[in-house]
Amino acid sequence: MLVRIKYSKLGDISYISHLDIIKLMERIVRRTGLKLSYSEGFNPHPKTAFSPALQLGVQSHCEYLDMEFDEAVEEDLLIQKLNEKTVEGINFIEAKILTDKVDSLVAFITHSRYEITVDEEDENKISKIISAINKINNTNEMLLTKKTKKGNIKEYNVKEYIGTIDFERKSDGLSIFVDICSGSVKSINPKKIIELVESLEDLSGIEYDLIKLETYHIDEDTGKKSNIM
To answer: How far apart are CA 152 and CA 160, in angstroms?
Structure first.
């Protein structure tokens, strides 16, 4: 039985590597007593697949994994059992039994929505951040450079990686909401958004928290948005 599971990763556990999260999930399942399916061969391993790795220190309300079990289990009961054996910072939200053939999580996911919370009381600095956001929204091309795997410097249009970006004023700062490419073919580190804001208004040292709110698929031909579950 193949099951897709949605979970959150909040707090200090966001600083644990993706590889350690994979091992942690296997331990949590073993604690429940449920039997995972294993591959065959000399080095069998659990049949699991995860959504793309999250950057260290980034929290998330919407991480996903596919797990194959040797036994049938109801979706609600599975979530209950996992949450009974989980650790602080990991909360299992939803499960869906996959009866039809589906794309892998890595292949299906194309975009994510993030909230960047800026704790700042300096009104001048807040005004500059808002000015940078408006500059990003009001242009179709914004060229940056990056180093390729071969060590070459390549120019690219960062606007091709950014969807909507808006903000909400708060009493103690600002919340920035941004949709970015986060797939296996095309992606950008969400921390680059703050770096871009700083470069546009000659700012530095913006203090912020970063949390992923949503992950989804956008069809390249039709523009249709599809949820992961």
So the answer is: 20
Instruction: Write out residues in the chain with pLDDT < 70, as ranges.
Output: none
Determine how many CB atoms are found less than 10 A away from the CB of residue 186.
13
d(CA 29, CA 48): 11
Region class of 11: left (phi > 0), else alpha (psi between -120 and 50), else beta: left
How far apart CA 16 and CA 173 sit, in angstroms, is 28
Give the pLDDT confidence of 98-112 residue by residue, as tens digits: 988 889 999 999 999
pLDDT digits (tens, 9 = 90+) for 161-170: 998 899 999 9
Phi and psi of 113, rounded to 5°? Answer: -115, 130
Q: What 8-state DSSP symbol labels residue 36?
A: B
The residues facing 227 across adjacent strands are: 216
Res 195: pLDDT: 92
Residue with tokens 């599975």: 78
Element (H, E) at 91: strand 90-97
Report how far residue 176's alpha carbon sits from residue 149's, in angstroms, rounded to the nearest whole number: 31
Q: Which two tokens stand for residue 62?
A: 């919407």
Q: Between the CA atoms of 65, 70, 75 and 78, what dihedral angle is there, to the nearest 10 degrees?
A: -80
Give CA–CA dist 22/47, Å, rounded.
11
For residues 172 and 174, what is the distance between their CA atoms, to the nearest angstrom? Answer: 7
DSSP state of 183: S
Angle at 200 between CA 164 and CA 154, to 5 degrees: 80
Residue 95 token pair: 């499960």
